[in-house]
Amino acid sequence: MGAYYCSICRQTTFSGKSHIFGKSHQSRLRVVLLKFLEKVKEARRTLKKPQVEKFDCSQHKQTFWCYCCDLEVEKHVTDGNMTVLHGGLLEHMATQEHRKSAHKFWWENKADPKLRDKVIITEDETQRFKTEVEKVLETFVEKEDDFIKQEADFIRTQEKYRQEVLQSLIEVCFPRMQ
Ligand SMILES: [Zn+2]
Ligand SMILES: [Zn+2]
């Protein structure tokens, strides 16, 4: 026995490891896992249908706390231009380190084993996600291209219009100069 810092309860206890079996720890653990699994669930939803958005620094710089690894991780991935929502979380949960920590965390906290695999992303899932992200990115780039073309057309039309207005203005104001 001895001082034991519990990151779930955020306190030091002196009952050593037996603290983990206590009521307060187990109920606190349930709350933590519930919130944690909710975030993972949200991310998992994008596995088959990745969400790609134009980078927005006010929205896409979020982090999440991985209780298994005791680590703050980027929630999304971005290249500063586009963002794959939840990409950071999914990427983290696919790493070997995370898998190991998840097993350790579940064992140490005597958490419900049925829930453990929910926080681990398999290699198959990662591969499929990557393929889907590529597809989405391709259509995204096409859409972007279209948008730029439309913008260019609009600017050209605007420019032509401006020229015409200017021309008629000149004709009206300075008829003798024509
Ligand atoms: Zn505790
Ligand atoms: Zn982790």
Your description of this structure?
This protein has 178 residues and is an alpha+beta fold. The chain has one domain. It has five helices and seven strands; from the N terminus they run E-E-H-E-E-E-E-E-H-H-H-H. The chain has a three-stranded antiparallel beta sheet with strand order 3-7-6, with helices on one face. A hairpin with a 4-residue loop joins strand 1 (4-6) and strand 2. The longest helix has 51 residues, at 123-173. The protein is elongated. The chain starts with a strand and ends in a 5-residue tail after the last helix. One zinc ion binds at residues 66, 68-69, 71, 92, 98, 101. This is Coiled-coil domain containing 84. InterPro entries: CCDC84-like.
Bound molecule kinds, no repeats = zinc ion
Q: Give the overall form.
A: elongated
Low-confidence stretches: none
Q: In sequence order, what are the helices and strands, one letter per element?
A: EEHEEEEEHHHH
Q: Tally the helices: what do you get?
A: 5
Mean pLDDT: 88
Determine Rg (CA atoms, Å).
27 Å
User: In percent, how helical is the residue content?
Assistant: 55-70%
Topology, number of strands = 7
Side by side, the strands of the main sheet go 3-7-6
